[in-house]
Design goal:
Layout: H1 2-13, H2 19-48, H3 51-69, H4 71-85
Length: 87
């Protein structure tokens, strides 16, 4: 990555570029384009497959399971018992 940055610095400073520099600049541009294409493809795939919606459904199911098992009721019972002590 440092080699590509140095090649771009020479190009922007107006220095004479050698063959290796032009190759590095082209490869750097291709790398950035491929990275952008990868992000777009992952976004489209996640929208098409309802990936984020399914993750939300998973957490909703887990929350309902926790409520049904009574893990949350234990805390509420403790709070009720503490409040009754003062009456």
């Amino acid at each position: 990555m440092e080699i590509i940055i140095e090649s771009f610095e020479r190009w922007f400073n107006g220095n004479q570029l050698i063959t290796g520099d032009t190759t590095n600049i082209v490869l750097g541009i291709i790398l950035v384009v491929l990275f952008i294409v990868l992000i777009v493809m992952l976004t489209l795939i996640s929208i098409q497959t309802l990936f984020w919606t399914r993750i939300g459904w998973f957490f909703e199911d887990v929350w309902n399971w926790i409520k049904r098992r009574g893990f949350c009721q234990y805390r509420f019972q403790q709070k009720k018992n503490k409040s009754r002590q003062f009456l």
